[in-house]
């Protein structure tokens, strides 16, 4: 159920359907998803501009990762539709996308074998594949670790490998689910640089993050989710600096938003300010 | 007690002297068991991996059946294989009864469910970790299966080891379909049973000791391999 704060002008579907978003690369329409009798996403409208960097933000349990998985086709929506370049999401659309998970999923093989596997799956062989692998290793700064088992790398190295593996598949659209959640600042900066570089080369980015600083460094468009629905969209800077909805204000101020008719937890009796 | 130690020292003498009869029985045992385990792996590994990876109607039932078949009574398997291979059975014209092939078939029937059921468990766990990444990369069904079998190779060694343990220690089924014929189908376990009944404890004990040594050696080898693989983060 939408509360009054969600219906402020320019929020939710109004903004995501703004005339600016003509011919979106990925178009999410009235998306809904339930599990165990609970509605986890409902009425979600999001349009991803080609070549843009879109951030999906919101508190824990808002449905960010679920939305990402639905957009990437790892789960099938129960309501609504997801259109790829105006058409149906099919196998070739899926192959034009890639995803980096919060916890890197690496095969029990060497660094180089992980890259080779992904490229082989995409039908690449021989010299072309070797060039791609070499280039990916250099981009990630992992050339000296090429023969090392992937699972003994540090968290930052594993995530860089996971990211360049995804990028080596030449995706048009790259989904990233909190890729720097467990990383130190230097590793985070390296991942962010790779993301910005990929975007500069034309890769559309959709990124889930909890980090407001990262949002400002990486984002152009922001989609804010609360309780499984979009409560505000717009340019990152605008939404975070001057939020129009109470859930975003609460999130920005570090307050727990409990609903339209409930006081935030920062006001509970006895709280020390 | 004296007779025990006498038999034991006699057994050691046979082992140290590499007694030709003893060596023949060991060689035959290993040939039959390793062939049966190899064939069981050839069937059981992909079967278990497929059940652990793909969703299809009746998947849970197949898993239950595989688990239940792990406890197949060897004498029942021996009897069934005997009926199939006997002159009046469907494979009677092949004249396989009382041959090493019959023993391999019986052991394979016993070991395949063990390999398949344990493989299903290993691959199902791995699939839980890999499934989304594979779906994201667009990995096809066959590539998924082979990739997971390869990545789980060190865990699957233990699975093969379990199958080997079952096969090498098997006596009930192989004595029914093999007939325990000297120089033809007489393996370690059937010889132990026969020589014990004849009171020839030296040979029986010698074979028992060797059977134990083989079991220890194979287990130690596989465990060492697994440990080194785990240290290198491949397991």
Automatic annotation (TrEMBL), chain A:
InterPro entries: AAA+_ATPase (IPR003593), ABC_transporter-like_ATP-bd (IPR003439), ABC_transporter-like_CS (IPR017871), ABC_transpr_LolD-like (IPR015854), P-loop_NTPase (IPR027417). One of its GO terms (cellular component) is plasma membrane. The keyword Nucleotide-binding applies. SUPFAM superfamilies: P-loop containing nucleoside triphosphate hydrolases. GO terms for molecular function: ATP binding; ATP hydrolysis activity; transmembrane transporter activity. Pfam families: ABC_tran. The keyword Ligase does not apply. Residues 26-252 form the ABC transporter domain. Transmembrane segments: none annotated. It comes from the Bacteria. Signal peptide: none annotated. Keywords: ATP-binding, Nucleotide-binding. Belongs to the ABC transporter superfamily. PANTHER family: IMPORT ATP-BINDING PROTEIN. This is ABC-type polar amino acid transport system, ATPase component. It comes from Roseibium aggregatum (strain ATCC 25650 / DSM 13394 / JCM 20685 / NBRC 16684 / NCIMB 2208 / IAM 12614 / B1) (Stappia aggregata). The lineage of its organism: Bacteria, Pseudomonadati, Pseudomonadota, Alphaproteobacteria, Hyphomicrobiales.
UniProtKB/TrEMBL annotation, chain B:
It is a multi-pass membrane protein. Belongs to the binding-protein-dependent transport system permease family. Residues 26-222 form the ABC transmembrane type-1 domain. NCBIfam families: ABC_perm1. It comes from the Bacteria. InterPro entries: ABC_perm_TupB-like, MetI-like, MetI-like_sf. Keywords: Membrane, Transmembrane, Transmembrane helix, Transport. The keyword Transport applies. Its main location: membrane. One of its GO terms (cellular component) is plasma membrane. The chain crosses the membrane at residues 33-54, 61-85, 97-118, 154-181, 201-225. GO terms for biological process: transmembrane transport. Pfam families: BPD_transp_1 (PF00528). It comes from Roseibium aggregatum (strain ATCC 25650 / DSM 13394 / JCM 20685 / NBRC 16684 / NCIMB 2208 / IAM 12614 / B1) (Stappia aggregata). This is Sulfate/tungstate uptake family ABC transporter, permease protein.
